[in-house]
């Protein structure tokens, strides 16, 4: 009897250690993948880009079967979405919800690592008439997950914009729009009961632009604030170093106003456009680079906002590619951080280090964006033929074949020709389909040679500057730590039981 009691005690300790280490995995940075673009790469090419940049978490705006298949056996955590158009039928029929789960989630597990379902997108503010069926839809989907015994792995929530909080500053007095009190309370109870999380779309870009100069640009971009520009909540005296943190805290306080706690917040969308119209001067490549790199550093420090310092903030950057088919202002089509050829729009690192994906000491020749396919094909043919570029790396099965796009292949061929021939007069033109850049287009195992612009000149192999993972601890380190602790604890259990057997 004593042995059994001690064994239960040690097993409890083991579970405590497991819980501790699983919670200590560190915050992550993910990416949203929109598909409203003219030249969307194939699903396999998209996944190749994700892997090349070591992106570990993605959010889809639907549940596309091709993408979910391509993501299988990658280990990438996937958030799928119920579109706004699907909510009405799902919210009115448990059988429709069950069919949706069977088709879009259960059919792909466990090969595809689906971990969450986003029900709609900013439903309360974009399609307010659907508010009465939002929580029923979430409930029906969750019950379908329970029926398939996958509710522990896959959580259900719904992304909401900051617009549901009319006055987010100061954060201490923030509250949800009373119009939605009934729906939001039901939603929060659901999240609490199912151990899920609140999905928040938080855009400091809009917060800054709409503030008409009330807040300094440094506050929106995570830049240090001077002593005369400090942002302080007058009620709590909390200092806010960024608008991002203030938005998250405003949401935590809005949740607390319903006397609910223990619901973590995941930022499902945030980012900064890198190009805009003549009246959108804050949408610049410099601001976008600053915001997203500082966001990554902020998330990677594994801390929460001032009111919840011990709850790290997971965040998904909006977005992977520019969606050129979107309507609205110019900035709406320029949020992407990666071009469809796999190169980054601006230097960025998804790791928690200070390095960024660039090579400031090299010059590369790459294909221009928005060039006619016919002209690109001609340039590619010339480079690999008469130009004598080594195009082996872009053949099937070779390291630069994916993404299998004309622009990617042309960029590699153009660059190889340019590096070999520049010293004897070769140019980076190719009938005006190419341009030089100091940004290294290498990705994963696909390496572009760069021409040194140092005083010594010469050629050198360019390293890949892909991110090294978003969490503060690598998965191998965390796995080793957990195994190490378990071995020690299990050894103690065995010793303890043997001791009591001899008594």
From TrEMBL:
The keyword Transferase does not apply. It is found in: Cell membrane. Coiled coil: none annotated. Residues 363-448 form the X8 domain. Gene3D superfamilies: 1.20.58.1040, Glycosidases. GO terms for cellular component: plasma membrane; plasmodesma; side of membrane. InterPro entries: GH, Glyco_hydro_17, Glyco_hydro_17_plant, X8. The chain crosses the membrane at residues 479-500. It is a lipid-anchor; GPI-anchor. Belongs to the glycosyl hydrolase 17 family. This is glucan endo-1,3-beta-D-glucosidase.
